[in-house]
Amino acid sequence: MNIVKEIFAECRADHPAVITPQEAISYGELAARVEEHVPRLAAVSAPRIGLDCPDGITHIVLALAILKAGKCLVPLAQELSLPERAAVVDQTHLGAILSGDGRISPAEQAQAPRFEEAAFDALNAAFIRFSSGTTGRSKGVVISHESLRDRVTAANRGLQIGSADRVVWVLPMAHHFAVSIMLYLRQGATTLLPESHMAKDLLSMARTHGATVLYGAPFHHALLAAESSGDPWPTLRLAVSTASALTESTAAAFQARYGVALTQGLGIIEVGMSCLNLVAAREKPTAVGRPLPDFEIETRQGEIWIQGPGMLDAYLNPWRTRDDILTDGWFHSGDLGHYDEEGDLHLDGRSGSVINVAGMKCFPEEVEAVLREHPGVKGARVLGRKHPRVGAIPVAEIIAVDPSKPPPISALVAHCRAALSAYKIPMDFQFVESISLTASGKIRRGEEVERKKN
Description:
Mean pLDDT: 90
Oligomer: single chain
């Protein structure tokens, strides 16, 4: 099956699919724009095609064209540095890259893929998503057309999005397109793309077009809560918070401003959305709620395990299929949590080390590896520090090669900027004599970095 073919077979051709401040296109017009690119993409011999395109209608058109042509879509996020981009191209063994202007460029590889092409072809793969964009701990999550259909169907049993809904889009498409926008399109809803993520632009578009759903990160909700015009949003029925932990202060401010409780969900790229706080959002905004009807979620010694439809089909590097990854059909999420007496799930943190920065994931190991390449750095530890607007920011502890002459912070920033996306660059550097290690010699990560008082 091909999920894009299903979308256009079931939609109303005259119904608006995407609206921006500059234009509105119907499902029929969207299908026509997609079809313009399909023959060229189908003729590409490579099974995987990278998409290098900014957010917008063109991104949606080209992504759908790659999928309809029977190719696997590999998003190349705009913020990737050249080394990060090269790592994605290498790990996925891309054969071609489609740019925003419609050009198809070869992405020839010097070596054979690190996985069996026959095994990959057997999956009917639709997407490969790297949670960090490069190496780090990111394995490359492979999702088939069938799994994508199953997970958006399961998620919508909670979201209840239909053709009458108009959804304000605020998340980066390269990171969130696979489930969110595909869900909206499959349900025949309208996606609204504001001019910017400034609160006044979001609210203006929402009011102009009668937006009913907001799906974003706490960062966006905090901006909207602080919007000063006082203009109401009377058509808003559902505001979903995802990507990083929602704070009580942001939830309270948003609810006071718009009269709608923020509904936090548990979304994982390997699983999709399995849990949504539909029952107790007002009373317990920081909970992620209860499992959606098609899912089971257990806490085993404080760790969250999930079972349900639409699970990932494989990890790319090293290659592991779903049967190899799951334990008796259950996925070990790496999240820590507990159920309260009413049966609502609360997250208690991560057993891993990922830092969520405004809806994007930063792996400390990746940043540490870059820092250690600087000639003035002997050792490094990167941790997350809570931030009221973006959720968390990376900060670094550095052991200098020569403690009497540590490298300038500006030099460390420049060194990171050459290899990393901007959101992964530490926002604070501290020079320390030693770094806390576990008994086995690994970097200890359980605590936040405390800023040294001067």
